[in-house]
Amino acid sequence: MAARFHPLYTLHMRIEDRLAELGLTLPPPAKPAGNYLPWVRSGNLLFLAGQLPLLDGKVMLTGKVGDGENTVEQGAEAARQCALNALALVQDAVGFENLVRVVRLGAFVNSAPAFTAQPRVANGASDLLVEILGEAGKHVRTAVGANELPLDAAVEIDFVFEVR
Q1: 41 three-class SS
Q2: Comparing C-alpha atoms, which of 143, 149, 147, 132 is closest to residue 14?
Q3: What would you report as the CA-atom Rg of the chain, rounded to the nearest whole angstrom?
C-alpha cells in the first residue's frame, strides 16, 4: 500500500518549494508599530493586522495610486509585498504546516481622486497567493479606495487564514 501524506503536509512543502521556485524570500515578520497585536487566532481562523508593503523595514511605495506618479502595476507590486509579509506572519504565528487556506483579503488602496482600479491593485496580492498556494490561495476579497493610509503607504491589506 502506498504511503499517504496529509494534504497539509503537502501544502507546507509546496509553499517552501514554490517560494524557492519563484525566487522569493519571506521577510522577517513585521513588529507592531502601536498598541495592537500582529495576529490573533480565534478557533481555526488567523486574523492578521493590516500589512503595509514593507521591504527592508521601509514602505516600498508611498503616495496615491493613479496620481500620475504611481501606476496600477506599481500598486500591484506593493500588494504582492503585503502578501509576502502576511505569509511571513503566518509562518511565525502557526507555521506553514498548519495553514489550510486563505479565507479573506481586504485591500485598501491610497487612491487618487476618480481612481477606480483598486481591484487591479489587489490582484497583485491575490495572484501571488494563488501562485504560491494553488487552490488553497483562492479567497474572498474586498478592494476599496482610501483617502490616506499609515506612513503614506500606497496599499494596506488585511488577511484572514484558516489554520489547523
Answers
A1: strand
A2: 132
A3: 16
